[in-house]
Amino acid sequence: MSTSKVVIVTGASQGIGAETAKAFRAQGHRVVATARSIAPTVEADHVAVAGDIGEAATARRVVDAAIEHFGRVDTLVNNAGIFIAKPFTQYTAEDYAALLNVNLNGFFHITQYAIQAMQKHGSGHVVTVTTTLAEKASSHVPSVLAALTKGGLNAATRSLAIEYARAGIRANAVSPGVIKSPMHPVESHATLAGLHPVGRMGEMSDIVNAILYLDSAPFVTGEILHVDGGQSAGQ
């Protein structure tokens, strides 16, 4: 366990978050998982904390749980996110509030607390899941609120990387295309596959493997790693 990291994963009750938590545990790391609907548990290598990640109190409880049970925080995976595809004028105030709460507040609070913990031992890594639609808009997918929030996270990732580079703390992002996950019903897969130059949707393992790569790449920081079947290159 001398090489075991302590990894926090948000949005970890299902989909990419759950698969990411599973993959880190399979590598011998200890994981603190959080989501609204997750069942609270405490195991030798896994702690689950239920709560709204947009709330500062939840973020505080998650980081405190990592320190209480495992003594430190090495990696934070900001995976929690909401995506709502609507024409811009049809977004409601509730849509706007929901995306800001999870996508921005859910990044801000826990990243602050995690970096504070990382600074105590002079190393760490923050990796955030964003979206290629933040940089390459598509006429097939109206996504202004995703661009507004996730695009901000790409910019924040670069800024964090520079601010904390000499403190031994890295910051990177994974920018996915459309991934086969519980977010997308099966009947939509054929249409969504056509949005990618490679002609198919991505798998959750594609994103998990990108996160694992970035976490194991000590000379990589400030990177927005596109895992999008060529979407970011063009159509």
Automatic annotation (TrEMBL):
Signal peptide: none
Alphabetized UniProt keyword annotations: Oxidoreductase
Family: Belongs to the short-chain dehydrogenases/reductases (SDR) family.
Keyword Amino-acid biosynthesis: no
Matches recorded under CDD domains: SDR_c (cd05233)
Protein name per UniProt: SDR family oxidoreductase
Pfam family, one: adh_short_C2
